[in-house]
Amino acid sequence: MHALNKNRPLRRIVLASAATVSGMVLMLSLKPHASPRLVTASSGKSPAVSSSSSPTAGSTPGTRTATGDTVQTRWGPVQVRITVKGGKLTEVTAVSYPNENPRDQEINSYALPQLRREALAAQSAEIDTVSGATYTSDGYRQSLQSALDSAGF
Questions:
Q1: pTM value?
Q2: Residue 9 main-chain phi, psi, to 5 deg
Q3: How far, in Å, CA of 12 to CA of 65, rounded?
Q4: Per-residue confidence (pLDDT) for residue 51, from 0 to 100
């Protein structure tokens, strides 16, 4: 006889319930996102967690470079470095940001340049959040403010 015999509806209910529970357990065991790791924009190595303000080598007087605090976000750490020249914010660089998987890379490929442009235009950390990159935007803003504070800007 067939296992799902129409004369035994209770057996069909039990088997359907067991299949549903098994499917739900499998779906809930999937990880929604890869675990974050720290990647730097230039070297691929983990930077020291610091906040510093010092003249760069070979820079002109009045030029200061400061690295903001590393801000831990849901998807990974974000850290920003700034250059202040003549009392004006002249450069903002994302030193580290989530870059673990293709989705992180896609988000940051459009979010980081937009955040940089806004920071340079605003000359402060009062910048808008980039749609679709809320966590990166929040971390960027916090690290930027830390770097600005360190540079005395």
A1: 0.60
A2: -65, -30
A3: 70
A4: 37
Highest mean pLDDT among 25-34, 54-63, 93-102: 93-102
Return the CATH architecture of domain 52-150. Alpha-Beta Complex (3.90)
Q: What's the average model confidence in pLDDT over 101-106? A: 88
Question: Which residue reads 């590393």 in tokens?
Answer: 70
Of 44, 129, 36, the C-alpha closest to 77 is 36
Render the burial of 59-91: b for 16+ CB within 10 Å, e for the rest.
eeeeebbbbbbbbebebbbbbbbbbbeeeebee
Domain boundaries, the chain: 1-30, 52-150
Q: How far apart are CA 95 and CA 92, in angstroms?
A: 9
Residue 64's nearest CA partner among 77, 72, 73, 53 is 53
Q: Which pLDDT does position 91 carry in this prediction?
A: 92
CA nearest to 76, candidates 124, 115, 34: 34
